UniProtKB/TrEMBL annotation:
The keyword Metal-binding applies. It comes from the Bacteria. A zinc finger (unnamed) spans 3-34. One of its GO terms (biological process) is negative regulation of DNA-templated transcription. GO terms for molecular function: ATP binding; DNA binding; zinc ion binding. Its cofactor is Zn(2+). It holds the Pfam family ATP-cone. Residues 46-136 form the ATP-cone domain. Belongs to the NrdR family. Binds 1 zinc ion. Negatively regulates transcription of bacterial ribonucleotide reductase nrd genes and operons by binding to NrdR-boxes. This is Transcriptional repressor NrdR. Keywords: ATP-binding, DNA-binding, Metal-binding, Nucleotide-binding, Repressor, Transcription, Transcription regulation, Zinc, Zinc-finger. It comes from Microbacterium sorbitolivorans.
Amino acid sequence: MHCPFCRNPDSRVIDSRTSDDGLSIRRRRQCPKCNGRFSTVETASLSVVKRSGAVEPFSRDKVIVGARKACQGRPVTDGDLAILAQKVEEALRQTGQSTFEANEIGLAILDPLRNLDEVAYLRFASVYRAFESLEDFEAAIADLRADRHPNED
């Protein structure tokens, strides 16, 4: 880690603390050359393997863009989409993996989107679950109804 004051390529960690959310570590560092102190925040990076085989960093913004398309014309705010993207990232991190197929990201969006807006969920699911017929939509709608109104047998 380069010192931000004198650009010395070395620094030593003098304190480490986990953030409140447990997703990052705050490190207090000191430069051995100028004795300047500074903080860094470290997070584990997530990678996405695209269908083409290219690997790129996970992006909450891309999750938001994809979900926003499904939510077009629905009463969903930008804040709702930001929370959805955060939930997706947290779910991915909880798996303990650092690399995901692009399709896995799409599937991870489904549950939070289902809780946010059922119509948007159906739109999104029709792509990521590759609906091929009306029966696929009917089955998804039946699942939504069963969750909303459990059978009282």
